[in-house]
Amino acid sequence: MVESTAADDIQAGRLVTALDEYAPTLGAAHLYFPGTPNRPARLRAFIDYFQAANSARRAA
Description:
Order of helices and strands: HH
Number of helices: 2
Helix content: 40-55%
Number of strands: 0
Mean pLDDT: 82
Low-confidence stretches: none
Strand content: under 5%
Structural class: mainly alpha
Shape: elongated
Largest sheet: none
Radius of gyration: 15 Å
């Protein structure tokens, strides 16, 4: 599980981390998609979500 997904639950004590010394450090996330002007709405929604999630992760 990506730690940022569970960060609130870890901070609240509902979840605990295990084997931290073996957990890889993840770098930046990238999203590749076709550069066509007529993207399906569900792809546009995912791109918007992905960008917002990454912005929030960088700000934390």
